[in-house]
Design brief:
Layout (H helix, E strand, L loop, with lengths): L1 H18 L3 H26 L1 E5 L3 E5 L4 E9 L5 E8 L10 E7 L3 E9 L5 E5 L2 E6 L6 E6 L3 E6 L13 E2 L11 E11 L11 H7 L3 E7 L1 E2 L2 E5 L11 H21 L4 E9 L4 E8 L3 H10 L9 H8 L6 E6 L4 H12 L3 E7 L3 H9 L3 E5 L6
Parallel strand pairs: 2-10, 15-16, 15-18, 18-19, 19-20
Antiparallel strand pairs: 1-3, 3-6, 4-5, 4-8, 7-10, 8-9, 11-14, 12-13, 16-17
Helix pairs in contact: 1-2, 4-5, 6-7
Length: 382
């Protein structure tokens, strides 16, 4: 419709310029035609020299935590851009956030545009495309520039602090230390950039001279307590009432256990009956030192499974390293918990149970076996 009106306007001005008997009218018609031509050339030139880039192709954040999204806008042409409107598509990731900002740019300049998101659901989301609405100097013409690049946002479950301790673990290394969580300088692991507070004796001077900046040695922990989280996301095991709320709470506890152990530099793994949407398989990550991010990426997208059976748990315990810690998270499953307890004891480890709404007799049964039980926040049933 706008193009049709513009065409009618141009034809009318041409008619006035060619056939008007008054010279003044012909002059104003020609001037207006030239102005429209300049506007059209300005829009086309400005649109060809605008470049929009995303600072991050993948963003990772936590549920209910604020994260910043940054866009870099560059004007590579000789013409300035006035009164443009930049907007980014957030979809259902954060309905309360709207990236819509006015943009003025000089020639040969760049700007960083940022806005914040506060996701209220875990999962994997996509930001984009970015749209830039350019207007001419008279406000008569508009041109929409669209950048197809997108950003993948992975929202982890909400994390909270748990009193996790790595005591009674399997000792590593050859140098004794008063604190079992200290690093063992006889077990070199990797290098990283110097951070404020690092001891000078940890600095690798040869690597620092080569890199032109201070580089610090990282060592293995002097003790290793492998943690395996068994996350039960079998839908029939949950009470029908508030099933989603209970499942989300269990996922948050599993993520918090993994994070707490990783902060103490311990090996972590996670086995779950839940389904990963990308391949339709169960989550199965054996304990390892660098598995925290992979586990949290999976927990961000995992979903309830309608199929029962806990053979995946017992098989994982048979392969578990000696003297590991096992944490079961989920509903009370009776005999299965007792079987997991016996398998953990056979490996010299311990079993901790994080249970949703257990009945009093269930708690008494677990306590009688010497199983540590933490009741997750929720409604009691039964």
């Amino acid at each position: 419709m706008r193009g049709r009106k513009r065409l009618v306007q141009i034809l009318l001005l041409l008619a006035v310029f060619l056939f008007a008997p008054v010279a003044v009218l012909r002059f104003f018609a020609l001037a207006w035609l030239l102005l429209l031509l300049l506007n059209w050339l300005y829009l086309r030139s400005a649109s060809r020299h605008i470049v929009i880039r995303r600072k991050d192709s993948v963003l990772r954040t936590y549920k209910n935590k604020t994260t910043k999204v940054e866009l870099e806008v560059m004007n590579t042409g000789w013409l300035p851009v006035y009164n443009a409107l930049l907007s980014d598509t957030t979809g259902s990731l954060d309905p309360t956030s709207l990236c819509r900002q006015r943009l003025d740019m000089r020639s040969r300049s760049r700007k960083t545009i940022s806005y914040t998101l506060r996701p209220n659901e875990r999962g994997e989301w996509t930001l984009g495309p970015v749209k830039l609405l350019l207007r001419d100097m008279l406000g008569l013409e508009e041109y929409t520039y669209e950048q197809s690049d997108t950003t993948t946002v992975i929202v982890y479950p909400e994390i909270f602090t748990l009193p996790y301790r790595a005591y009674e673990g399997y000792p590593l290394g050859t140098i004794k230390t008063g604190n079992i969580l200290h690093e063992d300088p006889s077990r070199y692991r990797a290098l990283r950039e110097y951070q404020q507070g690092d001891e000078w004796r940890r600095i690798n001077w040869k690597a620092s001279a080569h890199a032109g900046e201070l580089i610090t040695n990282i060592y293995e922990s002097s003790i290793d307590v492998p943690l395996l989280v068994l996350l039960n996301l079998t839908a029939p095991a949950y009470p029908l009432k508030s099933q989603y709320v209970y499942a989300e709470r269990c996922i948050e506890y599993a993520a918090s256990l993994v994070s707490s152990a990783s902060l103490l530099d311990q090996s972590v793994g996670c086995i779950s009956t839940g389904i990963l949407p990308q391949d339709g398989k169960n989550l199965a990550i054996e304990p390892g030192r660098e598995h925290r991010m992979a586990i949290l990426d999976s927990l961000a997208k995992i979903a309830l499974s309608e199929q029962g059976g806990y053979g995946i748990f017992t098989d994982a315990l048979r392969r578990l390293p000696y003297r590991s810690r096992v944490c079961y998270v989920g509903p009370y499953v009776g005999e299965t918990l007792l079987e997991l307890f016996l398998l953990s004891r056979l490996k010299g480890g311990e079993l901790q149970v994080f249970c949703i709404g257990p009945r009093m007799e269930d708690l008494e049964t677990l306590h009688a076996k010497g199983i540590a039980v933490t009741e997750l926040e929720g409604e009691r049933h039964g």
